[in-house]
Amino acid sequence: MARTALTRDEVLDAAASLVMRHGPAALTMRGLAAELGTAVTSIYWHVGNRESLLDALVRRTVEEMGAIRPTGRTPADRILAVARILRRELRTRPHLIAMVHERGLTERMFLPAQQALVHEVHAAGLRGARAADAVRAVQFQVVGYLLVERNRERSPAQSPAESELWDPAAAPHDPALARALARPADPDRLFLLSVRALVHALLAPDAAPGATGTTSTTSTTSTPGTAGTAGTAGTAGTAGTAGTAGTAPPR
Description:
Helix 4 (50-65) packs parallel to helix 7 and helix 5 packs parallel to helix 8 (128-154). The chain has helices at 8-22, 29-36, 40-47, 50-65, 75-92, 94-102, 106-123, 128-154, 162-165, 175-182, 187-203, 217-220, 232-242. Helices cover 65% and strands 0% of the residues. The N and C termini lie far apart (46 Å). It contains 13 helices and no strands.
């Protein structure tokens, strides 16, 4: 029996679930109607055609990615919270993030995270070019880490494996290091470790004094956020692919 009570939000929820599980190619109006137990005409009535449905999913993804509410006692703690939220959201919805990227809305999607980072680097006392570099450095770190993480998860079995390459004999001067490298990496711990180290360096009072923008361009480009000087678009473009690393080749 066809379902009668249906809302637009329920249609979008079901469509997003299909895309997250199987990719956008699996989203058909008939398949969505079957998922919801309703008639295809009901789907069209609520969201229009398939292209309109995809546009609605993209808009909603952009809105949801804007829900950045960092917590913590210090600016450094809250910057770390932003990074963790951003990584989690990108990992949760890779196909939807790719759709956002394909429609040229990646920059808009990342704006709330950037604004949250701006607020915290200002709270830490950074201003001008140094503050901008800090924001971009954190964004680059999250996106780059996610690319590596995704590729490692989807890579074929390695032979020899890391555990075989790092036996104690490979590092006789530091066997504990060899044993540690032979163990599987803990991506969550490494992410926190790398972001904490980056944030500590970025917020240090004596960090890259030439990055304030009051000295030469050469000094500015030596800061941790060097990649940011190429423009946020480079990061954002990568980030759109970061969500799909392994499902679509990085651009």
